[in-house]
């Protein structure tokens, strides 16, 4: 066997400094905030229009209205029907997207820089003069209903949906998918869409992010040309305080014939403006955010139970879920649940060793320039600033704030944020094979739940 | 699009090295393609090339189990590997001052994997891979589609007949001895391409590469490539209906097609975009929007090089639409495009979409490195990265029609249909 000449890890060279691109932020007279992020070396431009018209802006009987409204925008304008609009954009090499999450709606596209002006003209037309064709509405609504059924046939997506359903109480909107349920989507009408659009799709609190090889003056000029005479201010989003549906409990969703069980363990987490955000990021990564995380090392690299385990906080305007997830072979379901709960519980006992903390924190700090390699990544990075009002120097101070997270901070975050007596432990799998063993673990009161 | 710079080096041990400097961000990509994939597996050992890839992360003489991932991530890097029919690739993207770490880790496992191998590690990763199969195939709606398409399009004995993930039985049979044989046979510098792309000084980088990889001996007796020759057409229509736990039927059509790297492959790439890329594509416009027979459509050729490739498309039926009706509509649209050919506007559309997609993916230095390795490994021509767009743009309506005529014909197609195994009661309630 040939031995390498170099038995030791090489010494790194001198790091080259990297800074997040400088950007400008200008608010037009109609309230629209324009973020220009010049990236001179970029080959493409990314344009994101964020509107305060996410699922937090709809009321519960209309669950899914924000998503359907956003989706319907790409099916044409008053001037161009669905086919003509698709052809007009795609002929420029542009695929326009329009979608919504809980916190925001986003209409966006990527283009070669020379198509910026034409592309933004079409995006503005789409947002301001949508066609809202009845046939397209019926089609997208039917597709959405079918997609919900498709999602429930996929064990991972079913587990995600059932986890939030059982995690949050009945009054918390987050207990269903932002795109709605079959019950709520079935009731939506085209008039609901028209009215939601007229009310919420307005520039008053909207943000336009442009990242690419364009200087700030050019960006502002193009933005003004197509969006300065857009007017209106929406009512914004609802404010609510998410609550848990119960204390420590185990929920089994039967999926007969499954050869794996999709496990989710978690509880309520943090909101995006939480003071614990940075320690929570490190804690999530240490538990399940990197290959060498505790969950992945134990469940995959030691026990071989799964292809991979992960964990993390989903921080939104309001408190979102913390969850740990793994798909494990059926016959180890109970043991895997016990292992996951134990790891999530033990992290509250002692501060992590410095070596482990270093591994996780150095990754989060060091990977910084890789995250912003693409103009799409840069545009995405501006979104939390626009949506959550994070300070302009957020990315400039980001690495220092991560580096400041010490072992004691991680321990404090674990003790503050993780409460094993509140854990929801959920499995989607073959109940006939796993129920007895899960019950025998004594992890908590067990409830069998339907899969719809 | 600016040319991707390419410097080629050949080490004495046969390692092909591609350097592609670009200092626009302080990051660097290291990418290795080994000319070994599931097509090199012997009977009874399907899935082995991929299982072996997992073992490459289990440590080597100077690197402990788990340390490869830990060192790269601690340095702020990302990494992974993948196995496919023709090849296995290993890659990491790092802050540029950590380039040597990536080279050292890659060279250490190529020089000295076997001393670190144990039965315990093999058993552990065997279980991980079996769970990967359960996750992506056995417990997944429509999850067996690619396995079935390969099995139908390539006869037993052709090594594209089996899937890369392999069978549970063969995974169970894999031994440490297999690991030793496979490593000694295929994991040699003269069976690999190493690409370094991003922020580095070429003189420094090639010196590092020579220092770390130079002492690793070549395999003087690399086996000849497997015989992949196969008739260009199946010769008859094949059909299979699979009952599965799915709410909606889905129709897959698959055809033998010319391999990646040929003009005809480019022609059919254009045809696939005309049919299925974007909302103005033929299948989306007619089947999804106008006739409302399909919930979604997808079309793609597989870029593989062994004898024949696969032109594949699928459509999921809208609720209440039968798979027979969907299949007939799919075939009608394919025939219509093959018959009349694309208009000038349609060609302009897919060319501009393609150009934007290439520009977008090439923003990532890791993607550039992977394509350089691919062209070098498959064709010994890394420069093909710079002619991708022009090859695509040269395809005209006549070439599209001719290639579709020759490939997308009834005696060369598989119709693979998934149907709901039973009507689940809860679906009826929701409908």
Strand content of chain B: 15-25%
Strand content of chain A: 15-25%
What value does the average pLDDT of chain A take? 96
Structural class category of chain A:
alpha+beta
Number of strands of chain B: 11
Q: Characterize the overall form of chain B.
A: globular
The strand count of chain A comes to: 12
- Biggest beta-sheet profile of chain A: 6 strands, mixed
Number of H/I helices of chain B: 16
What does this structure look like?
The complex is a heterodimer of chains A (452) and B (431). Chain A starts with 23 loop residues before the first strand and ends with a strand. In chain A, helix 3 (116-128) packs parallel to helix 8, helix 9 packs across helix 16 (407-417) and helix 11 (333-346) packs parallel to helix 17. The mean pLDDT of chain A is 96. In chain A, the strands form two sheets. Chain A has a six-stranded mixed beta sheet with strand order 1-2-6-3-5-4, sandwiched between helices. In chain A, strands 9-10-8-11-7-12 form a six-stranded mixed beta sheet, sandwiched between helices. Chain A has helices at 65-73, 82-90, 116-128, 134-153, 155-167, 182-186, 190-200, 216-227, 277-288, 294-302, 333-346, 354-366, 368-371, 375-388, 394-403, 407-417, 431-441; strands at 24-27, 33-38, 45-51, 97-100, 105-111, 207-212, 249-254, 260-268, 306-313, 321-329, 424-429, 446-449. The longest helix of chain A has 20 residues, at 134-153. In chain A, 42% of the residues lie in helices and 17% in strands. Chain A has 17 helices and twelve strands. With 431 residues, chain B is of the alpha+beta class. Helices cover 43% and strands 18% of the residues of chain B. Chain B has helices spanning 48-55, 67-74, 99-112, 119-138, 145-153, 168-173, 176-186, 202-213, 263-276, 282-290, 323-340, 344-361, 365-379, 388-394, 397-407, 425-430; strands spanning 7-10, 16-21, 27-34, 78-83, 88-95, 192-198, 238-244, 250-257, 294-301, 309-317, 413-420. Chain B has a six-stranded mixed beta sheet with strand order 1-2-6-3-5-4, sandwiched between helices. In chain B, a hairpin with a 4-residue loop joins strand 4 (78-83) and strand 5. In chain B, helix 3 (99-112) runs parallel beside helix 8, helix 9 (263-276) packs across helix 15 and helix 11 (323-340) crosses helix 15 (397-407). The longest helix of chain B is centred in the N-terminal third of the chain and has 20 residues, at 119-138. The N and C termini of chain B lie far apart (50 Å). Chains A and B meet through helix 2, helix 4, helix 10, strand 10 and helix 12 of A and helix 2, helix 3, helix 4, helix 10 and helix 12 of B.
